């Protein structure tokens, strides 16, 4: 099991070019199998989830090339309809291959998707919508077997604006006969990105970014060139690392509009923020401030994916903050590890109260999910002394060489593979 060794107490700062977005590129890779010509995706982040996605595409018969940060996918010879259990168990967004394969081959087989254990994460909303659109679903040995003799557009009302369900319905609807309307659709920037990509491939989609998305099905999608947008969560992570350590940073390639939820909180905590056309500048305050409440929610509310890293910041702020996690029911696992580093956090169900302390100290801790691991890295950078953070494979799912990036920005972070190194 890999771990990070972090020497705390050094300021993070300088300039950082934000990578392409994990949660944007993964749906695009799944969507590429709907296109019956070559798809070229530029600015791909070189993260573990991308490599799992490329393995899935190859296993389905696609030709895949990776050239620097550009991925070229040719799915003309796609012949598979089943995604192997090993790949499905590694990554949540593998569930999107259900919609994409059904759209392309009218058939798909896939197990329960894996990913970070931050709650139950059922896929009932995806499956209910599929059934309404004509998909026949049976479950055998925990594998969903889906067949779509005829895919028909439908009015789908989502009980919750699920990101994954909205994406899966889009993937199906672009190839269904007639009109699909998704009511109470997710509005995240990654939904907008997927809709724009599908449109570049010839799909007819209207209203992405609003709660109502309309899709007119088409017979065929063609290839496209597309650039993956910046990762708003990676950007937020580097802002938090800087704020926690008292530094100054300029993020290149980051856009303010998509990060408002996070930026508002950083401002409330006393950070100085300035914006360029394609950049965000943060200056940490002498002491971070708290004394407010923070509630996660679907976009444009404060994003649940930033909650762990902001919790690390709050542990060092003057004052008290109550965090309500409304999206995932088990997303406070990092709090116990933060307490081992000297934080004062009381958890109760979906709420956590963070009482700010003057300082944290280094410790040996384990991150048990992607953002929880990132939160511990931030706490360790700000702490006095050395920390070891186990569970680096979770962090590697969504951050490209974060240890190198943080070291270039003035931190001291090393990645070690294996328990005894
Ligand atoms: C790869 C990817 O893009 N992952 C993101 C995506 O995950 P993901 O697409 O899994 O998140 P959802 O928006 O679907 O989930 C939100 C909530 O809805 C529940 N739910 C969802 C679907 C369903 O059929 N039934 C159901 O009950 C989930 O258990 C969760 O409590 O959006 C989340 C919410 O912004 C982010 O934290 C993840 O980083
Ligand atoms: C929860 C996350 O990812 P996933 O949905 O891929 O598990 C995340 O990116 O924070």
TrEMBL record:
The active site is at residue 116. SUPFAM superfamilies: EPT/RTPC-like. Its EC number is 2.5.1.7. Keywords: Cell cycle, Cell division, Cell shape, Cell wall biogenesis/degradation, Cytoplasm, Peptidoglycan synthesis, Pyruvate, Transferase. UDP-N-acetyl-alpha-D-glucosamine binds at residues 92, 121-125, 305, 327. It catalyses: phosphoenolpyruvate + UDP-N-acetyl-alpha-D-glucosamine = UDP-N-acetyl-3-O-(1-carboxyvinyl)-alpha-D-glucosamine + phosphate. It is an enzyme of class 2 (transferase). GO terms for molecular function: UDP-N-acetylglucosamine 1-carboxyvinyltransferase activity. Phosphoenolpyruvate binds at residues 22-23. The modification 2-(S-cysteinyl)pyruvic acid O-phosphothioketal is found at residue 116. Gene3D superfamilies: Enolpyruvate transferase domain. Residues 6-406 form the Enolpyruvate transferase domain. It is found in: Cytoplasm. InterPro entries: Enolpyruvate_Tfrase_dom (IPR001986), Enolpyruvate_Tfrase_sf (IPR036968), MurA_subfamily (IPR050068), RNA3'P_cycl/enolpyr_Trfase_a/b (IPR013792), UDP_GlcNAc_COvinyl_MurA (IPR005750). Pathway: Cell wall biogenesis; peptidoglycan biosynthesis. Belongs to the EPSP synthase family. MurA subfamily. Cell wall formation. Adds enolpyruvyl to UDP-N-acetylglucosamine. This is UDP-N-acetylglucosamine 1-carboxyvinyltransferase. It comes from Anaerotignum lactatifermentans.
């Amino acid at each position: 099991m890999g771990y990070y060794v972090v020497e705390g107490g050094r300021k993070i700062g300088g300039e950082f070019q934000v990578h392409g977005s994990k949660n944007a590129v993964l749906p695009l890779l799944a969507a590429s199998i709907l296109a019956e010509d070559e798809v070229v995706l530029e600015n791909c982040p070189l993260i573990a989830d991308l490599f799992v996605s490329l393995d899935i595409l190859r296993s389905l018969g696609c030709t895949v090339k990776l050239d620097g940060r550009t991925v070229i996918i040719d799915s003309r010879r796609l012949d598979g309809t089943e995604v192997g259990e090993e790949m499905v168990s590694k990554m949540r967004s593998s569930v999107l291959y259900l919609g994409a394969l059904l759209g392309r081959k009218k058939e798909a087989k896939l197990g329960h998707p894996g990913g970070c254990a931050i709650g139950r994460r059922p896929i009932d909303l995806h499956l209910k919508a599929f059934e309404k659109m004509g998909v026949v679903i049976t479950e055998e040995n925990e594998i969903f077997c889906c067949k779509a003799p005829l895919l028909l557009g439908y009015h789908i009302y989502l009980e919750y604006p699920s990101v994954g369900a909205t994406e899966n319905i889009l993937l199906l609807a672009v190839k269904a006969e007639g009109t699909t309307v998704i009511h109470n659709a997710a509005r995240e920037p990654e939904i907008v990105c997927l809709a724009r990509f599908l449109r570049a491939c010839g799909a007819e989609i209207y209203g992405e970014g609003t709660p109502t998305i309309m899709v007119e099905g088409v017979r065929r999608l063609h290839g496209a060139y597309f650039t993956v947008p910046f990762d708003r969560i990676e950007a937020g992570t580097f802002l938090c690392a800087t704020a926690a350590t008292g530094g100054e940073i300029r993020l290149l390639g980051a856009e303010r509009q998509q990060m408002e939820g996070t930026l508002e909180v950083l401002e409330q905590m006393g950070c100085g923020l300035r914006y360029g056309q394609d950049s965000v500048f943060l200056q940490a305050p002498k002491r971070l401030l708290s004394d407010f409440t923070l509630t996660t929610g679907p976009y444009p509310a404060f994003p649940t994916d930033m909650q762990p890293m902001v919790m690390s910041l709050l542990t060092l702020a003057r004052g008290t903050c109550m965090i309500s996690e409304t999206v995932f029911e088990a997303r406070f696992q990092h709090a116990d590890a933060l307490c081992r580093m000297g934080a004062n956090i009381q958890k109760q169900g979906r709420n956590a109260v963070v009482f700010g302390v003057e300082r944290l100290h280094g410790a040996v801790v384990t991150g048990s999910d992607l953002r929880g691991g990132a939160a511990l890295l931030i706490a360790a950078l700000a702490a006095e002394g050395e920390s070891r953070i186990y569970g680096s494979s979770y962090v590697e799912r969504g951050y490209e060489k974060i240890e190198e990036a943080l070291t270039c920005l003035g931190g001291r972070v090393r990645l070690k593979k294996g328990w005894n190194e």
